[in-house]
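Chain A, query sequence.
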Amino acid sequence: MAKLWGGRFQKSTDQKVDDFNSSIRFDARMYRQDIRGSIAHAQMLGRQGIIPQEDAEQIVEGLNGILADIEAGKVAFEIDAEDIHMNIEKILIERIGEAGKRLHTGRSRNDQVALDLRMYLMDEIAEIDGMLKDTLEALLSLAEKHTETVMPGYTHLQKAQPVTFAHHLMAYFEMFRRDRGRLADCRKRMDSMPLGSGALAGTTYPLDREFVAEQLGFSGITRNSLDGVSDRDFVIELASCLSMVMMHLSRFSEELILWSSHEFAFVEMDDAYSTGSSIMPQKKNPDVAELIRGKTGRVYGHLMGLLTTMKGIPLAYNKDMQEDKEPIFDAVDTVKLCLPVFREMLLTMTVKKERMLKGAKGGFTNATDLADYLVKKGLPFREAHAVVGRMVFYAIEHEKDLDAFSMEEFAKFSDIIAEDIYDAISMETCVNGRNLPGGPAKEAVEKAIAEGKAYLSR
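Chain A, predicted structure.
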């Protein structure tokens, strides 16, 4: 098949090269954006008198027909036509003849690709943002039910201080909230229209770049033609943002995997979000959470691959940059696959409140509150810290919790401890006494939930 760019060549490319060079297998997904961009370009060419107005109208009509046929499954793309851009142009010429050959006036595939990719990823960011919002709503819904569900908080995976499950959930609310902000910020830098950059040096045709940008919904145009065709910062930045989303999904998934084990037993995954063993009939495996954790490495790999691909490319466009699409497309697909299933896994799991409370009571999570009690009674903190450390050692030796000490046992360590110690180091007091903004107290968490709802409603 004759190539649209084949005038300078005396022989056809090898079939293996056609297969190697072609990107239609993965860039076909950008057909809507390619057609939208071509329609805006054609309208501008006609408006500027660069091509006859009737040709521009014929091109627009032909492109709309191609779009309808693609979405109806009536179009088969060809590997020989290399990519989605050449496929659509080839089909257009076949359908409308000479007028179709005028579409590429004042345009290069370099700026066409940059345009389509920006438009496609901006659309995908909007979809992922909606999924993140759904995830945040799920976290709020679950948190509202567990403002009094006490559980151990950890540092170094060692029991540290008691918190509530709602407080724990709201920590992830803040992480995913920042993820939305990062994506929105990334989209702002993506929101520049590159068409008109040409191959690298613009064009002598009197293009109206601002008109095209306005037609396509961009807030502005790229300011440098070399940068317009060779920039893939926006792809790498999006891959970074998606890696952060996956990192947060993975961290929470790791906790759910631990918590659903027999050793923790804080939660139980719903049957619909678990799998069994082919040999061990008792098993209920948290495979969904494990897959999310595993797929995180996949997205990280795409980020590193993109950085490596771009690190040594001189200006402007080089064919290496075709390798930008598969990684970012797969990263987008992976995040879109994980977010909905993660949300439903959360909403369907069983939270074992009594087991969480028992976990909080073990491991001396109220030791800090005992030290604070002594400080409030007049003991310097460092001395109080040492006293409580000796009490914990005693408790370990005698296999008992701090709140199970008798007054006689407390007296062995300090004569300023009174009967009010039991209330001071109860789980409820330990949690609700921390009523600072951002703290785990019920009142503080309820305020955080209310603020979260207000944020989502904006």
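Residues 139 and 169 are 6 Å apart (CA to CA). The mean pLDDT is 95.
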